[in-house]
Amino acid sequence: MSFGTGFDLFEVQSIPEKGKGLVARSNIAKVLIEKPLFTLDPEADLVESSVVSKVKALSKDKQRQFLALHNNFPGKNVFSGVFRTNALPCGPESVVGAVYPTICLINHCCDPNSHNNWNNKTSSETIHAVRDMKAGEEIMIPYAKQEASFTRRALLKSSFGFDCSCSLCSLPVSELKKSEARRLRIEELDQAIGEPSRLVNAPTKALADCQEMARVIEEEFPNGSASPLEASLYYDAFQISITHGDEARASAFAERAYRARVICEGEDSPETENMERLMNKPTIHRNYGISKRWRMTKNMVSKGLDGKEFDE
């Protein structure tokens, strides 16, 4: 499997019914790191005038790259239409968006083979393959959250102007209903696990929810493309454990979160580096010391267990 950060691992091709897209030239891991053409906070700025100003500040070549991007909002506000169609958030909770000449050509799939992530340390967007990708395969990321199809397909239609017909959305009705049920259950479990009062008052139930969520994720994503979800899940399990003084389980969960982050974000991601620190020294987390209900030191992890026994 090739590993690189430049433009030698893929090529831009015309994709039937999609326009342009990126296709792998060889079997790849890290696909691309790219700096934005510009960033903008659409909530704080008058978008059309602000985008025009940003584009005018670019070189002629970069101006052409921006205007060549797809616009799902045709009309008099061409510049803001292109921005709204293509901008990616600079981090999961960020309201600041960024546009890229190449990354913005990547098409959507509800069961993607790649993951996009903003790296605060390098001020760039990264694309990583989350499962094995063969030469000739189109590189695809999710435009919507891993939600039930009726939710994400409505969002894709309103925001990007297309009816999704990816491999997941094209499943037979019976199989699609099973996927719907699994994704709805993942959402329910995620909300329950994230409830602060349960973390403190019902940690055993919260960890049981984590275990069920791990099982449902494995069923829904058998090809191994769920590393972003797994990274979040195992960090939640880490927080539950360390809140109650269980350094052994906390360290084990942090290691799994770290491995998942490496896959979808790379070793140089600040979030990945933070998980590595927590893996090595879980007691530095702010929740350590709140409770000693499950007090166990890091070196008390059971030895000689197989994978299933260790999980249990």
Q: What are the key terms here?
A:
single chain; 312 residues; alpha+beta; Beta-clip-like; 2 domains; three-stranded antiparallel sheet; 11 helices; 10 strands; 15% strand; SET_dom
Question: How does this model look, in words?
Answer:
It holds the Pfam family SET. InterPro entries: SET_dom, SET_dom_sf, SET_domain_protein, TPR-like_helical_dom_sf. This is SET domain-containing protein. It comes from Clathrospora elynae. With about 300 residues, the protein is α+β, with helices and mostly antiparallel strands. The protein has two domains: about 10-160, Beta-clip-like (Beta Complex); about 175-310. It is built from eleven helices and ten strands. The strands form four sheets. It has a three-stranded antiparallel sheet with strand order 3-9-8. Strands 4-6-5 form a three-stranded antiparallel sheet, with helices on one face. A two-stranded antiparallel ribbon has the order 1-2. β1 and β2 (about 20-25) form a beta hairpin. The longest helix is centred in the middle third of the chain and has 21 residues, at about 175-195. It is globular and about 60 Å long. It starts with 9 loop residues before the first strand and ends with a helix.
- Report the portion of residues in β strands: 15-25%
Top CATH class of the largest domain = Mainly Beta
Write out the CATH superfamily name of the largest domain: SET domain
Number of domains: 2
CATH architecture of the largest domain, by name, is: Beta Complex
Subunit organisation of the chains:
single chain
Tally of helical segments: 11
Per the principal axes of the C-alpha atoms, what is the gross shape? globular
The tally of strands reads 10
- Stated plainly, the CATH topology of the largest domain is called Beta-clip-like
